[in-house]
Design goal:
The protein is an alpha+beta fold. It contains 34 helices and 23 strands. It has five domains: 2-132, no CATH class; 138-228, Archaeosine Trna-guanine Transglycosylase, Chain: A, domain 4, CATH 2.30.130; 238-379, Rossmann fold (3-Layer(aba) Sandwich), CATH 3.40.50; 391-546, Aminopeptidase (3-Layer(aba) Sandwich), CATH 3.40.630; 566-731, Hypothetical protein (Archaeosine Trna-guanine Transglycosylase, Chain: A, domain 4, Roll), CATH 2.30.130. A hairpin with a 4-residue loop joins strand 16 and strand 17 (538-543). Helix 6 packs across helix 9. The longest helix has 20 residues, at 92-111.
Length: 735
């Protein structure tokens, strides 16, 4: 029925809504389609969307999600997702999802001490293995001479017939030539075409349509054994574009970002190269003093051994679409090195080169400095140095519009149009949140509240009438700081402040890797795709009303679950403000917390406990209680804030604890080694709210919440009435 609708009026079909309904997803068990129907459904990415929408739980790898998924009576079933994978058209996004999910889950399961939790995790691991192994691992082609030249170890770019921008890279593990289609198919047809054909004869019937019999008789069929390729950058050689060299070696234009990257290169012992043509390009630099400064430092760099790099018609077709001046010719020489696999990756901040790389299907190996820095910092957050983090609310008129930071936004929004919008906001005395360091602007966030009368004629499906917070402009560049979480906290705080029904953001989801990363980040915090704007931007929406019990506390944040329990969480003064800097007391020295660290700006916090029988559950509330260091303690001991329990994990050993805590704990690795034997339980917390007025222990005595002469114990439970008293005292006017 869906196929018929897609043929007759595809624009009238709300695929996002259909594929988000789990009841529709279950129907996969009864599906019976031919090759044409499969092709049609994949044209609109129906199966992919079912997996990413209704079947998204397969990528949730925390222990609490697994507990719910595999619990008795749950209607969800691995077989549905498994069968859906039989029909998908693999793309980069799906490969990355599977690769990321599989590797993350293996690490996660190793940390689990609960037997049932480990069983659930291993069940999911086996599902991942099945998905990876059972899907097509061979590619069948006419064995023409040029295809026979493809060698084991070569990379193939497999481009979608429906959309040339959709492709996947695979590595050739083996190859074999057969005289006939039957000889080629007989061994692997069931594995490669599972659920598509009922018999070998059916598979042969379809395959005969691809090539004329005369050509098959002449050349035969070549079968490549393939495996999906996901590029990693930990052990790879790097070719430096001239603009990177100048940013590093210039006396007046040294880049903080580039300096940090080279620290990573040294740490990872990565080899860097320059191209022989770079010297010629630098010699034409207008600033002679700067030119000489850079030239004198080139001798310290390795020059890439240049092979006789060949080009093909496709390469020439792509580069000929762009200007062909001398600088462009040099750029093309560098791209040739990547195109011919002479070096691992090319590092450049030239937007035109990045566009060429995208069209040449080598964009995964041609990276900007911010993309590569983000890769290292995401994969190795424990090695990040956190300094000088300061997000400020500034008027537009005090923000430098000419900053290179805004170039990509100009590109997205038609240059003049973006500048006009910016100047309009400046005239209206609007404000935006910014982060800047010595290298310039690195983060920008503009928020706008909209009431029920707002018009959304350019959004499809159309928005219902609601009060909303619009994330008008949101851009962050990787700096080594946890800017994403810091800015996200600002978004959520504003949403709660203005009591909106939902938050939404629009972005060009497929234009740049930084935007793709931002989209994945926001989706992990509960933003779901709604639809599209007329200009092609994807629309992501997060509800501020409806708590989804099928999702984690992180996904629902800052919403609270319906049935909730409340507990005290005492923290010693020497640890309290380091972990929760927003909860600092008025009499504390703020200068002690000016050197910013990862755990201070993370929304997700780590608390180590020695309690082995914690009654609190995932989603419950903890009252942050700062114990007093001065007498009388009834006045120096205070409730400062509220947090949500995300996960409770009993670590099995020191290494396990260190791995879980990473850069979210206030303790160093050496301190954890000492503490873990006594405090083996890791409690993951979500920073929820800071109390306007600190609630003293004396007030807890007065309201009979705590027995006179004692203090709150770790995970001591409160009832709802007691919690409400504390909340009202903390959030109300001074009493």
């Amino acid at each position: 029925m869906l196929c018929g609708s897609l043929i007759e009026h595809p624009k009238g079909i709300d695929i996002e809504s259909i594929t988000s309904n789990y009841n529709n997803f279950i129907l996969i068990k009864d599906i019976d389609i031919n090759e044409y129907e499969k092709s049609l459904l994949n044209k609109y990415k129906v199966f992919n969307k079912f997996i990413l929408n209704a079947g998204k739980d397969v990528f949730r790898n925390d222990s609490s999600s697994h507990w719910d998924y595999y619990s008795y009576g749950n209607i969800k079933d691995d077989s549905y997702i498994s069968k859906c994978f039989d029909y998908i058209e693999w793309d980069v996004e799906m490969i990355e999802k599977i690769e990321w999910g599989y590797e993350e889950l293996k690490d996660n399961v190793e940390m689990r001490s609960n037997l049932d939790s480990r069983i659930n995790g291993n069940t999911r691991i086996e599902l991942y293995k099945q998905i990876i192994l059972k899907n097509k691992i061979h590619e069948y082609r006419l064995a023409t001479p040029e295809r026979n030249e493809i060698k084991v170890g070569d990379t193939l770019v497999m481009i979608s017939n429906q959309d040339k921008n959709r492709f996947v890279k695979v590595t050739v593990k083996a190859k074999q030539i057969f005289k006939t289609w039957k000889d080629a198919l007989i061994e692997y047809w069931q594995q490669d075409f599972k659920n598509l054909y009922n018999s070998l004869e059916d598979a042969l019937y379809e395959c005969y349509k691809f090539y004329p019999k005369m050509e098959v008789d002449r050349y035969g069929i070549i079968v490549y054994s393939i495996t999906p390729l996901v590029v990693t950058y930990d052990k790879i050689d790097i070719l430096l574009d001239t603009n990177i060299l100048i940013k590093r070696e210039s006396n007046s234009n040294t880049s903080f970002e580039i300096s940090k990257l080279f620290n990573w290169f040294n740490n990872k012992k990565l080899l860097t190269y320059i191209h022989k043509s770079s010297k010629n390009e630098i010699e034409k630099y207008k600033d002679k003093k700067e030119m000489q400064s850079v030239l004198t430092k080139l001798n310290s760099y390795n020059v890439l051994p240049v092979l006789n790099c060949q080009t093909d018609n496709y390469f020439n077709e792509v580069i000929n679409k762009y200007s062909m001046d001398e600088n462009s010719s040099i750029d093309n020489e560098l791209l040739k090195e990547i195109y011919n696999d002479n070096v691992g990756i090319l590092l450049t901040d030239d937007n035109v080169m990045l566009k060429k790389a995208e069209e040449l299907y080598i964009r995964d190996r041609v990276l900007s400095s911010s993309e590569l820095l983000n890769y290292f910092e995401t994969k190795y957050p424990q090695n990040i140095e956190y300094k000088m983090l300061s997000v400020k609310l500034k008027e537009f008129k005090n923000i430098d519009l000419n900053s290179q930071f805004f170039d990509t936004l100009r590109e997205d929004y038609n240059g003049v149009e973006f500048d006009r919008w910016f100047k309009k906001k400046a005239a209206q005395k609007e404000k935006a949140y910014t982060f800047e360091n010595e290298d310039g602007m690195k983060g920008f966030l503009y928020l706008k509240t909209e009431d029920k009368n707002e018009k959304y004629d350019d959004i499809s499906p159309k928005f219902p009438s609601k009060n909303r917070l619009k994330v008008g402009t949101f851009k962050i560049i990787s700096t080594g700081f946890r800017l994403g979480e810091r800015f996200l906290k600002i978004i959520f705080d504003n949403a709660r402040k203005f009591n909106v029904d939902e938050i939404y953001v629009t972005l060009f989801e497929n234009k740049r890797e930084e935007v793709k990363q931002l989209k994945r980040f926001m989706e992990s915090w509960g933003f779901r795709k709604w639809g599209y704007k007329d200009n092609g931007e994807a629309v992501l929406v997060k509800s501020m009303i409806d708590y989804d019990n099928n999702e984690s506390p992180k996904f629902n944040y800052p919403l609270l679950k319906n049935k909730i329990n409340y507990f005290f969480l005492p923290i010693y003064p020497q640890y309290h403000t380091d972990l929760f800097p927003d909860m600092i007391l008025q009499n504390e020295n703020m200068h002690l917390y000016e050197e910013n660290k990862a755990h201070r700006y993370a929304l997700e916090k780590i608390y180590l406990s020695g309690a082995l029988d914690i009654k609190a559950k995932v989603g419950d509330i903890v009252i942050i209680y700062r114990t007093g260091e001065r007498y009388p303690k009834r006045y120096s001991s205070v409730v400062t804030g509220i947090a949500i329990i995300e996960e409770i994990i009993r670590t099995k050993d020191v290494d396990d604890c260190i791995k879980i805590c990473k850069d979210r704990s206030i303790f160093s690795e050496e301190e954890i080694k000492v503490l873990q034997p006594k405090y083996p339980v890791v409690v993951r917390l979500l920073d929820y709210a800071t109390l306007k007025n600190k609630v003293s222990l004396n007030q807890l005595y007065k309201n009979q919440i705590i027995v006179e002469g004692s203090g709150p114990r770790p995970f001591q439970q409160l009832n709802k009435e007691e919690y409400t008293i504390i909340y009202n005292l903390g959030m109300g006017e001074n009493l």
